[in-house]
C-alpha cells in the first residue's frame, strides 16, 4: 500500500507538469491585434486596424474625397433638374394653408351654393396664398384626402374580408392614374381652345383632387348606412363638386380676360368647363362603388 501511494504521488507530479504549447500552424501576420488568452484577437482590434490603415493610406483619402465630390455634384444636378420641371416656390404656395382655411374650404366643397364671390384675390399682381383667400386652390386638401381615401378603402375592404396589399395598391394607383389622365386632358383642352389664363398644372391638379373629399363622404356613408345612403351622398357631393368646378374655372381660374374673344372661342371654353365638371361624378362613382356593398 505504501508503494502504491508513493507511485500515485509521483504520477500526480508528472501529470501536473504543463506540456509545452504546440507550434502554431500559421504565423500571426496581423501586427495590429492585441491577443487574448487562447490566441483570439481583442474585440474591435480588427476594426481599429482597418480604420487606421485606411485613414493612413493617401490613396484611400483621395478616393474618399473624390467620391464625396461626385456625390455633391450629383446632388446639385438633381436639384437643378428638379427646379427645371417643378418650381419649389410655386409648390409652397399651394400648401400655404391653415386650420381655418381647411375648415372653410371643406364646407365650400360640400355646400358651395351660397358662396357669392368666386374671384381669386391679388396683391400687387400676385395671388394671395390659400390661407388668405378662400377661392385660391390648394394641394393640401387633395393630398390629405387622397391618403384618407386609400386608408378608408383598406378599411372597407377589410370589413368585407376582401383586403389584400395587392388590391389596396391597385385601388390607390387607379385613383392616381385617373387624376393624372384628367389633368392631361384638361391641359390638352386648354391648348386646343387657346385659353389664355394663369392656369398651371398645379391648379388643375388641385381642382381635380378635390373630388377625393366627395369620395370619402360617399364611402363613409355607404359603410354606415348601406347602399342607399351611399347613393344619396354620392348625388349630393357630385352636384356640389360640379357647381364648384364650373364657378371656379369660369371665374377664379380662367378669369374675365380669358373669357373674351370670338363667340366660337367662348363656346369652346364653356364646353371645356362643363365637360370637366360633368366628368367628376363618373370618376367618383367608378372609384367608390366597389367599396360599398
From TrEMBL:
Stretch list, region Disordered: 1-33
Principal location: endoplasmic reticulum
Cellular location(s): Endoplasmic reticulum membrane; Golgi apparatus membrane
GO biological process terms, semicolon-separated: endoplasmic reticulum to Golgi vesicle-mediated transport; protein transport
Membrane topology, record value: Multi-pass membrane protein
UniProt entry tagged with the keyword Transmembrane: yes
Record has Magnesium as a keyword: no
A Pfam family of this chain: YIF1
GO cellular component: COPII-coated ER to Golgi transport vesicle; endoplasmic reticulum membrane; endoplasmic reticulum-Golgi intermediate compartment; Golgi membrane
Alphabetical keyword list: Endoplasmic reticulum, Golgi apparatus, Membrane, Protein transport, Transmembrane, Transmembrane helix, Transport
Membrane-spanning segments: 139-161, 167-192, 204-224, 270-288
Role of this protein: Has a role in transport between endoplasmic reticulum and Golgi.
Family per record: Belongs to the YIF1 family.
Protein name per the record: Protein YIF1
Gene symbol of the encoding locus: YIF1A
Amino acid at each position: 500500500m505504501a508503494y502504491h501511494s508513493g507511485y500515485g504521488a509521483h504520477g500526480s507530479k508528472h501529470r501536473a507538469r504543463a506540456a509545452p504549447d504546440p507550434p502554431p500552424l500559421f504565423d500571426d501576420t496581423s501586427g495590429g491585434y492585441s491577443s487574448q488568452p487562447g490566441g483570439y484577437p481583442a474585440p474591435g482590434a480588427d476594426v481599429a486596424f482597418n480604420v487606421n490603415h485606411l485613414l493612413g493610406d493617401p490613396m484611400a483619402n483621395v478616393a474618399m474625397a473624390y467620391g464625396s465630390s461626385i456625390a455633391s455634384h450629383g446632388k446639385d444636378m438633381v436639384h437643378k433638374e428638379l427646379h427645371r420641371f417643378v418650381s419649389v416656390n410655386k409648390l409652397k404656395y399651394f400648401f400655404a394653408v391653415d386650420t381655418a382655411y381647411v375648415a372653410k374650404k371643406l364646407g365650400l366643397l360640400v355646400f358651395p351654393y351660397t358662396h357669392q364671390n368666386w374671384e381669386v384675390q391679388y396683391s400687387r399682381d400676385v395671388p394671395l396664398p390659400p390661407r388668405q383667400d378662400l377661392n385660391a386652390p390648394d394641394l393640401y386638401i387633395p393630398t390629405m384626402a387622397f391618403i384618407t381615401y386609400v386608408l378608408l378603402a383598406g378599411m372597407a375592404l377589410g370589413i368585407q374580408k376582401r383586403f389584400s396589399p395587392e388590391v389596396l395598391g391597385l385601388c390607390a394607383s387607379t385613383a392616381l392614374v385617373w387624376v393624372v389622365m384628367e389633368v392631361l386632358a384638361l391641359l390638352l383642352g386648354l391648348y386646343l381652345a387657346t385659353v389664355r389664363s394663369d392656369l398651371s398644372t398645379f391648379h388643375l391638379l388641385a381642382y381635380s383632387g378635390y373630388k377625393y373629399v366627395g369620395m370619402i363622404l360617399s364611402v363613409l356613408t355607404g359603410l354606415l348606412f348601406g347602399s342607399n345612403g351611399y347613393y344619396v351622398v354620392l348625388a349630393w357631393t357630385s352636384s356640389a363638386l360640379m357647381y364648384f368646378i364650373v364657378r371656379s374655372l369660369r371665374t377664379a381660374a380662367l378669369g374675365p380676360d380669358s373669357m373674351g374673344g370670338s363667340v366660337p372661342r367662348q363656346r369652346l371654353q364653356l364646353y371645356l368647363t362643363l365637360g370637366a365638371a360633368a366628368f367628376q361624378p363618373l370618376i367618383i362613382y367608378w372609384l367608390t362603388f366597389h367599396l360599398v356593398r
